[in-house]
Amino acid sequence: MNEIINNILTRRSIRVFKEEQIPESDLNVILEAATFAPTGMNAQSWHFTAIHSKEKLAQFNSLVQKILLKHPGEDPSMPYIDFLKKVAEAPNFNFFYHAPTLVIASNSISSASAAPQSDCTAALQNIFLAAHSLGIGSCWIHLLVLISDLPEIREHLTELGVPPEHRIYGSAALGFPERSTPKPAPRKAGTITIVK
Ligand SMILES: Cc1cc2nc3c(=O)[nH]c(=O)nc-3n(C[C@H](O)[C@H](O)[C@H](O)COP(=O)(O)O)c2cc1C
What we know:
The protein is built from 7 helices and 4 strands. The chain has a single domain (3-175), classed as NADH Oxidase (3-Layer(aba) Sandwich). The protein is of the alpha+beta class. The radius of gyration is 17 Å and the shape is globular. The longest helix has 18 residues, at 116-133. Bound molecules: flavin mononucleotide. Flavin mononucleotide binds next to strand 3.
C-alpha cells in the first residue's frame, strides 16, 4: 500500500506515553508539517505553541486542576465545566495524559482566512500524521478550547507564548507510545456517497 495512505489508516489516538521526551529535531519536522497545511486565503494567521517540557506540562496540569476545582460550576457559558470539575477531582489525573510535549494550535478570530478553526484543524491533522510517520504517538486534547477564557489560564497561555488575541482551536499531546497501537474502531457504514 502507498506509504501515505498506510500512515493515515494506521494512526490512532495514543493516551499512554513513555517518560522519554521526543527529540527536538522530530518536533521541528512535526511543526513544519503543521505550517504546510492549507489555510483559507493562504492566511497562515495561526500560531503553534509547543511545550517541549514534561516539567512545564506538569505545572500547567496542576494549574488547570487548581482552577477547575475552585470554579463554582454550573456556568451556561462554559460547556462541560461540571464534567471537567469532576475529572479534576481525581488526584492523579493528568489532562495531557502525562505526554512530554504539547502543541497548542491557535488563530486570530479576525484572520483574513474565513475559517481560522478549520485552518488549525487541518494543521493538527498534519501534526498527528507527521508524528505517526516518525513513530511518535499523539492525541487531540480539547480541554484548552473549553477553558482558555478563564483569566488565570489565559494569563498562563500568554506566558507560554500563545498570542493574547488568539483563540485556541485544539492541541496535540505528543510522545512515544507506551503500548502497541490500538485497533481502530469499526468505520460507520453509510458515510460515503459517490455520484457518477
Ligand atoms: C475535535 C476533536 C476533539 C477531541 N478531543 C479529545 C480529547 O479531548 N481527549 C481525547 O482523549 N481524545 C480526543 N479526541 C480524539 C478522539 O477521541 C479520537 O480521534 C476518536 O476516538 C477516534 O480514535 P482514533 O483517533 O484512534 O482513530 C478528539 C478528536 C477530535 C477530532
